[in-house]
Amino acid sequence: MSHDPEPANTGPTLLERIFASEIRAWHGRAPLWSVFWLKGVLTSGVLLVLYATTVILHQPLAEQGLLIFCGLYTVWILVSIWRCSLASDTFWALLARYLTIAWAANAGLVLFFRQLELLAILGGLSGPGF
């Protein structure tokens, strides 16, 4: 019976080092204020501007790609905020959880209806020349 030696622990990978802050947030080990305001509100604002630009410039394929990214980002940020808020029983942590529920409902509806509209545009059933 042969035993392969266990690989030596070489430390975090390059991706783990690059995304260390995001990984800490996902596991609920980051400060709530930074996850909520910087990674949540500020980053969502930047994504909104990028998304609005694709809509204004009538770039449905870019819009589709960004819509998928925004959906994935939304799942990550909502889970991260929720988990980081569980580390505290303050008013602000509770408020963050309530706002996360509202944010999830709003994001789900916006993503769903924008996707329907985008399918109609890409299918030629809607848009500037229809």
What does this structure look like?
With 130 residues, the chain is mainly α. The protein has a domain at 65-123. Helix content is 73%, strand content 0%. The protein is built from five helices and no strands. The protein has helices spanning 14-18, 20-26, 32-56, 60-85, 91-122. α3 (32-56) runs antiparallel to α4 (60-85).
Order of helices and strands: HHHHH
Helix content: over 70%
Radius of gyration: 20 Å
The geometry reads as extended
* Percentage beta strand: under 5%
- Structural classification: mainly alpha
Mean pLDDT: 92
Low-confidence stretches: none
Quick description:
It contains 5 helices and no strands. The protein has 130 residues and is mainly alpha-helical. Helix 3 packs antiparallel against helix 4 and helix 4 packs antiparallel against helix 5.
